[in-house]
């Protein structure tokens, strides 16, 4: 079995006839027929049924083609990768981020990174922290930014930052007149909560329990930026990651510190051995600069 035989088989499947397959490959029809026949001998089963001059894939041929097609898609990815390296020179970095940072710090880091590496291509995906962790572990992304509730076992990581939570208050709400918000202030107040597994939410729930405060839970969302939008619409008061609040205060959302403080902690996650890659180190440096310039 060789590549030319596989190519002929795939061309016949895609084009539907030997004559069209020959045109695709730039060879004669007898050559295509010969290559397909040699492949059938090599695999040990018929790939096509000959019906009135046409080649109809057998069930075995169809099953074999699925693997052939997957292999060709892999070759296409390799061609794309080679073209990207040829055209851009500095390669590619794939970054996954939690939503809170994905609309603020990470875009600023991309700008800083590209100023130093204008030829590099950045792939940026925004997803849940659990998905960030899984995609980095699976090798689909080079670098991840995730909240501290993720499982850190089996993944290289370092602390990115610990950020004090803010209370997001609807415009005109009575609590907007206060300089600091305490757990007892939210007793029986409509409350927009983050997901139950969010560590900052767990801290806040504990503080409320200790203060005897029972906020009126009206909605849960995993995303701080969504919690800010809900608070802006007057749905309730939210405890949010400060990384997600950019622009909301200008639109009328009141933002106040919490006392006692609640912290959102986040980690940088690395694909195995990627911490040493020059592009990853450069992007991490850009992230740190963006974090420090908040």
Element layout with pairings:
Elements: H1 3-15, H2 18-25, H3 29-43, E1 48-51, E2 54-57, H4 59-88, E3 92-97, H5 99-102, H6 105-116, E4 121-126, H7 129-137, E5 143-147, E6 156-164, E7 166-169, E8 190-193, H8 199-211, E9 216-220, H9 224-232, E10 237-240, E11 254-257, E12 263-270, H10 278-292
Helix pairs in contact: 1-2, 1-3, 2-3, 6-10
Note down, in words, how this protein is organized.
The protein is an alpha/beta fold and about 290 residues long. The protein has three domains: about 5-85, Winged helix-like DNA-binding domain superfamily/Winged helix DNA-binding domain (Arc Repressor Mutant, subunit A); about 90-160 and about 265-290, 3-Layer(aba) Sandwich (D-Maltodextrin-Binding Protein, domain 2); about 165-260, Periplasmic binding protein-like II (D-Maltodextrin-Binding Protein, domain 2, 3-Layer(aba) Sandwich), CATH 3.40.190. Helix content is about 45%, strand content about 20%. Strands 4-3-5-12-6 form a five-stranded mixed sheet, with helices on both faces. Strands 9-8-10-7-11 form a five-stranded mixed sheet, sandwiched between helices. It has a two-stranded antiparallel sheet with strand order 1-2. Helix 1 (about 5-15) packs across helix 2 (about 20-25), helix 2 (about 20-25) packs across helix 3 and helix 6 (about 105-115) crosses helix 10 (about 280-290). The N and C termini lie far apart (about 60 Å).
